């Protein structure tokens, strides 16, 4: 993406790119991987991904959608694998994100922005996005059924988590916040 440079940052950026590298990581998890690969810790800046924030959260529907490499099976509950995330989020009450590895989990951020609580694998950077018990639930292993059932059976809990998820996405993971933090990282390096 591009941002409009001001305060002389454009000239410094053009000059600075020739003299320094600025590894920007999408999560602390990814930053740790860069450090393990030999990138100096002091040069890495974490700038979380940003997602668009829809105009309004969606009403509770009881629909469960999932993003997973294989079907998520929960006896007695229909779980639809998403083929169009933003369209499906508009009618979802729970978003299941089953993964073996994630840098951050932009799809989880999208669900949060749409006001949909997330039930996600506790891997990679997902715990940096999803606050367990506040914006959704993190799952170790394969028991996605328990937290999904809890959200479907307790609509007040689901609505509280949906509101908290949307609020967190607006505060920390919006496109505007990502641009602000990217600009801050470059200003820090370029002086």
How is this structure best summarized?
The chain has helices spanning 9-19, 28-36, 85-89, 106-113, 126-129, 145-153, 155-172, 175-190, and strands at residues 24-25, 45-46, 64-68, 79-81, 94-98, 118-121, 136-139. With 191 residues, it is of the alpha/beta class.
Instruction: Summarize model confidence as the mean pLDDT.
Output: 85
Give the termini distance in whole angstroms: 22 Å
State the total count of DSSP E strands. 7
Q: Roughly what fraction of the amino acids lie in strands?
A: 5-15%
State the strand order across the main sheet: 4-3-5-6-7
Biggest β-sheet, characterized? 5 strands, parallel
Q: Which sequence of SSEs, written as H and E, runs from N to C?
A: HEHEEEHEHEHEHHH
| Computed structural class | alpha/beta
Radius of gyration using CA atoms only: 18 Å
Overall shape: it is: globular
Are there runs of 5+ residues with pLDDT below 50, and where? 1-5, 9-19
Give the helix proportion (percent range): 40-55%
Number of helices, counting only DSSP H or I runs of 4 residues or more: 8
């Amino acid at each position: 993406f591009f941002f409009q440079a001001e305060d002389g940052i454009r000239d410094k950026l053009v000059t600075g790119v020739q003299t320094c590298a600025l590894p920007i990581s999408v999560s602390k998890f990814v930053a740790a991987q860069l450090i393990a690969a030999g990138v100096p810790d002091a040069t890495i800046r974490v700038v979380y991904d940003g997602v668009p924030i829809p105009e309004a959260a969606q009403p509770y529907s009881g629909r469960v959608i999932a993003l997973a490499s294989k079907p998520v099976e929960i006896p007695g509950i229909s779980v639809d694998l998403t083929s169009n995330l933003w369209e499906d989020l508009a009618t979802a009450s729970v978003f299941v994100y089953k993964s073996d590895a994630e840098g951050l989990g932009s799809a989880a951020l999208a669900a949060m922005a749409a006001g949909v609580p997330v039930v996600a694998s506790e891997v990679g950077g997902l715990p940096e996005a999803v606050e367990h018990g506040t914006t959704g639930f993190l799952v170790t292993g394969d028991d996605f059924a328990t937290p999904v059932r809890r959200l479907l059976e307790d609509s007040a809990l689901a609505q509280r988590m949906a509101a908290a998820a949307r609020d967190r996405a607006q505060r920390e993971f919006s496109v505007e916040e990502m641009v602000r933090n990217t600009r801050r990282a470059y200003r820090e390096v370029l002086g």
